[in-house]
Amino acid sequence: MSRVGKNVIKIPSDVQVSILDTCVEVKGKKGQMKLDVDFSKVSVEKDDNVLTVKLVGDNIVFASLWGTVRNILNNMVVGVSEGFVKKIVMQGVGYRAAVQGKNLVMQLGYSHEIVFPIPENVTVTCPDPTHVDVAGFSKEQVGQVAAKIRSFRKPEPYKGKGVMYVGEKILRKEGKKK
Q1: 86 DSSP β-pair partners
Q2: In b/e form, how buried is each residue of 65-78, taking b as 16+ CB within 10 angstroms?
Q3: What are the residues facing 24 on neighbouring strands?
Q4: What percent of the chain has pLDDT over 70?
Q5: How many helices (H) does the chain have, and how many strands (E)?
Q6: Average pLDDT for residues 103-108, to the nearest whole number?
Q7: Which of 42, 111, 127, 142 is the 20 to 30 Å CA partner of 62?
């Protein structure tokens, strides 16, 4: 059984949660999100400022959905109230990035610049040329955009160059021996 599904979700005062026929809608200062829920497998209840996800039936498949739905709802509540940020750092000679209009322009050691269009509902900023901050209210979207930016030049284990998340540990390998 899921231990995650048993935890309640505390709703901040600036967030409104409404449970409709087939979905749960969450609104806050950062934006609004919807989640389609199969209420025949899990039930979502709202009491004052607490959201509870309960299991319907005694099925293993339903139990796995129980924890998943609870975590997705929690991410929605946190996202519309506080938001999510992924910080990326570029290490390497000449590696840099800049936001130009609705595009992120990166120079990552290739013969050409990489132009990445910034999707809606995601904010990309460059505090300095080697750092990129990806922010938004959807944890899934922020993570997807950050992963796409990282995929243009993954960190390599010999020199430690590449695009990586702040705090990410790269396992370094020893080079050739003479």
Answers
A1: 134
A2: bbbebbbbbbbbbb
A3: 19, 35
A4: 99
A5: 2, 13
A6: 96
A7: 142
Residue 150: count of CB within 10 angstroms of its CB? 19
The pLDDT confidence band at residue 40, using thresholds 50, 70 and 90, is confident
* DSSP state letters, 72-117: HHHHHHHHHHT-EEEEEEEESTT-EEEEETTEEEEE-SSSS-EEEE
Say what the pLDDT of residue 145 is.
Answer: 96
Q: What pTM value is reported for the model?
A: 0.88
- Residue 59 sits at φ, ψ, to 5 deg, of -115, 140
Three-state SS at 133: strand
8 Å CB contact between 5 and 66:
yes
Q: Which domains are assigned to the chain? A: 9-81 (3.90.930.12), 84-165 (3.90.930.12)
Q: What is the pLDDT of residue 82?
A: 93
**Distance in angstroms between the alpha carbons of the first and the last residue of the chain:** 56
Average pLDDT in the 115-129 region? 95
**Cα–Cα distance between 35 and 83 in angstroms, integer?**
17
